[in-house]
Every structure is written in C-alpha cells, then in structure tokens.
Write a structure and sequence with these properties.
Length: 210
C-alpha cells in the first residue's frame, strides 16, 4: 500500500485537504488525533510529560492543558525536542499499526511536522499543502484566537515554506476557493491510485521472476 505523508505549515489547510481525501475514500491517519489519544489521563505518556514539564501543565481535572504546553514548547527548542522524544515513538507505532490494518490502494499520514521531525522515511511520497503567509495568519487567528507573537513563535519553530517545498513530491496550492482545492485533490487521488496499481504490478513481476 502506498503511504502519502501530508504536511504543511500551520494554517495551510491540512485539515480541509484531509477531509476532501477522506470523502474520496482515502483513509486518513492523523497524528493530531493520535497525539491526543496517547496523552489521555491514565496513559503512560501523560505521566512522562508531567515528569518532564511539571504538574502545572495539567488542568484542574487532570487532563493535559495543550494550550499551556504549546506555549512552553514553542518558546524553547530544547523543550520542544524533549516533548517530541516522548511522543513521536508512541505516535509512530500507532500510525504504522493502523496502516497495517488497511486494504486500500493508498492511505494518508497527516503529519504537520513530517519534515521537521525527519519522519519522511515513514512515507512513500510527501504531499505539501502550501498557502500564502498572510492567509495562513488570518486562518490561525480565526481558528485558534492566537495573537501575532504566538503565531510568529510557531512560524519560527516550523520550516520556512520554500524549504518545505524542496522536500515535496506533490504540492497542493491552497490559495483560492474550495472548488480549486477539491480539483487538486481529485487529480492526486487519481494519480496515487494509479501509482499504487503500478507498484503492485511491479511487485508481482519481481516476485514471479525470483
């Protein structure tokens, strides 16, 4: 099965693209969802995070205060690396497990920090969602209600757009309306299905020749 790594800077429209792929039948394995699951109360990762960052990153009900933790890690590359060292192995393990249960031409790993975290080895192709910075900033303010300083800190922690695009096998430009976005997704869905079929045929030929 072909594995597509979907990535892009914050506010680029990764969720919208994932939704469109899902509507076409592509399974989406989302690290944001898995990352929430592995830090639920009672999970070992939550205790590890508390040990590393202190109990003040918990809410009154004992759940992870994601907003407070986000502010901490985006202000300190060292603390961000510390958090990633805790979460990434657990998330990666769960993603691969979910993928192993599928029987589809391809699936999508939605990984916001795919390139920054050096996880491109997990996927066969890297799909980058790109959008102008000002448009991304507007989306973040509307969605997350962050101020410019908070947004700047997140932008700084992520790769510059042009650097991210250098790693792309495929690019979706999310700078227009939903119809334009859907057209690009439909084209890539067709391409990924064809690539998967071709690789399957090549695999059979390789096996038969041995």
């Amino acid at each position: 099965m072909l594995i597509i790594g979907l990535t892009g800077g914050i506010g680029s429209g990764k969720s919208a693209v994932s939704k469109l792929f899902s509507e076409l039948g592509a399974p989406i394995i989302d690290t944001d969802i898995i990352s929430r699951q592995v830090v639920e109360p009672g999970q070992p990762a939550l205790q590890q995070i508390c040990t590393a960052f202190g109990d003040e990153i918990l809410t009154a009900s004992g759940e992870l205060d994601r907003s407070k933790l986000r502010d901490i890690v985006f202000a300190s590359p060292k603390k961000r690396a510390q958090l990633e060292a805790i979460l990434h192995p657990l998330i990666q393990q769960e993603m691969l497990h979910q993928a192993s249960l599928l029987n589809t031409p391809y699936c999508i790993f939605a990984i916001p920090l795919l390139i920054e975290a050096n996880q491109t080895g997990l996927v066969d192709r890297t799909l980058v969602i790109d959008a102008p910075e000002e448009l991304r900033r507007q989306r973040i303010k509307q969605r997350d209600h962050l101020d410019d300083n908070q947004i700047d800190a997140i932008f700084t922690a992520q790769l510059p757009p042009q650097e991210r695009l250098k790693h792309a096998d495929d690019i979706i430009h999310n700078n227009s309306g939903l119809d334009h976005l859907r057209t690009q997704v439909i084209d890539l869905n067709r391409r990924y299905t064809e690539i998967s079929k071709l690789e399957k045929c090549l695999g059979k030929l390789s096996t038969s020749s041995q």
